[in-house]
Amino acid sequence: MIKNYKSFDLKSLNYFILALKKPAIYQKILCPLFTERQIEVTVKRLDLLHPVVQGNKFYKLHYNLQAAKELGHDKVLTFGGAYSNHIHATAIAAASNGLNSIGMIRGELIAPLNPTLTDAQNQGMALHPMSRSEYREKDSPTLLERLRLRFGNFFLIPEGGTNALAIKGTKEILNDQDLSMDFVTAPIGTGGTFAGLLASALPNQKLIGFSVLKGQFINSEIDDLLQKHKIDPKCTYDIHTAYHFGGYAKHKPELIQFIKELKQNSNLPLDPVYTGKMMFGLFDLIEKDYFPNGSKILAIHTGGLQGIRGFEQRLGIEL
């Protein structure tokens, strides 16, 4: 994980585009359990696509920022929590594309700012707190009109970045090299990445989603996304809701221990919010014989490693 985010030159507008053309980096995970089941697990390291705008956020933001510039906007506005990967990525990606950014942050802005918000502010993002009750209205036309009166005209990017342009980007995560895989796994937050993968996976593949949110509602939210964006998956898919470890950004000791062991044994860094839960669920399902012997599994590493700094700072747990 990159510790010094300021060391990278973010002023090159070309880098953001060129990173999409870089060859994907894959990492095969070796484990006695996999050998016993004759199962291959390969991680697609989207966290290595760009030095700081990591993983699926890169794909979600690419077409949004392109549209903002084509429409003549000079600033984007978005929403997120105090440790949001989306806020962090939007601030840096907007700056690298010559755009100003505004971040509406759920809850108070507590000084000193945490590493995520410090990075965002250092890249020029104007941070504004929202009460939790007001934040729940973030999609309402009334609130958005108030924000336009306050900040002027802006290009809106929703919380988590999930919209039609984001899904257009996440459809491009899978390439020809990935289409030989039997299974593709990904963590699910707002669902934009999962929807994009569903739009591009082949009929012979099965997509496995691991919800990081507590509850069964994610199934209806994915259904709504597919209907809204007219996505008719060719593949089959399952969404697992038993690996949230208490809910969004929650954790338990066994998750932390798993993340530490996988990093030590396989040199694979994971975050406790998204990728850690996905990989824990994947190992558990393999142990429970969910996958047929001989299966080839592709796990999508969606990034989010910047959040580890804030996690360690808040809880005193070193990952």
UniProtKB/TrEMBL annotation:
InterPro entries: ACCD_DCysDesulf (IPR027278), TrpB-like_PALP (IPR001926), TrpB-like_PALP_sf (IPR036052). GO terms for molecular function: D-cysteine desulfhydrase activity. Keywords: Pyridoxal phosphate. The keyword Mitochondrion does not apply. It comes from the Bacteria. Pfam families: PALP. SUPFAM superfamilies: Tryptophan synthase beta subunit-like PLP-dependent enzymes. The modification N6-(pyridoxal phosphate)lysine is found at residue 57. Its cofactor is pyridoxal 5'-phosphate. The active site is at 84 (nucleophile). Residues 36-303 form the Tryptophan synthase beta chain-like PALP domain. Belongs to the ACC deaminase/D-cysteine desulfhydrase family. This is 1-aminocyclopropane-1-carboxylate deaminase. It comes from Cyclobacterium amurskyense.
